[in-house]
Amino acid sequence: MLSLFKKKNLNKTGEDTTVSSEELLNETSANLSAEEEVETSLHYSPAYMPTQELKYVYQFLNLDLTPLKPNQVSLSGIDLKQDGGDVTVTAFIRNSLDKAIQLQEIPLLLLGVEDEMLGRKVFNFAEVGEIPAKSSTPWVFTFSGDELATVEEFPKTGWKLAFELKTARRHELDLEESWANSLPEEDKARLHQLVAEIQAPKPGEVNFMGLQAKQTSEGNLHVTMLIRNGSDKNIQLQQLPLEVTDASEEVIAKGGFTLDDLEVKANTSKPWTFIFPSDLVLKENVDLSVWKAYPPQQHS
User: Which of 34, 66, 235, 261 is deepest in the core (most CB within 10 A)?
Assistant: First the structure.
């Protein structure tokens, strides 16, 4: 790795990004003046012990870093190297608090000269260990495969590594276009109110909530459910097995549904109606005063 840094020109190639420790960690230092400048001393994680020569490089680069303000966490880009389909980024993790911090899983963004997205990956900072007060810790981050954007060449200078901060976002209703066009405004308003009032799914969780079940005169069972996506990514459903129980808690219908990549946007709930034809209804007289519908693997 030393070959990346020529002793006659020990310049880091990346820029610095900085976030508030309160925003990132809900942590602040009360003992520091807001106008104070914080120098960060070099620290090595037990999980990454560079060679003595490379320590010299890090020491030189750390001395040249711009001081931080109190209550900041910074990523200071040192080097970016492209190796086949992987991109390896070396950066200082800097902590200006007057106490140690411990980061956990946080998404990182690799940004280009114009702040264009070059990569995104969730890194587990628990591997780094504790980052002491007022310190700079060098660490190596690797992006690969679909974690990287498709570009001809990654920039040699001017790139940035940044924390992706999630702002609190309200869970919202996601209506398929056909529903938006056909559903009465009163029903749309009720659905919006329902989604706003019920507890949102946990981060990363996808679950199902029953809205309405009714049986037609032909014996078909119509079940309307909310598909609730608590993740920060859109999901596509291709196939969904479902079982339905009635007030007796017996399974009254079961079947598999092909959905043709039905998309539920990030942090939204989408209503959808599943129709069980009469030959998939397993009970003659069903009691829908109380009912549940669920994928079999989610039945507890």
Answer: 235
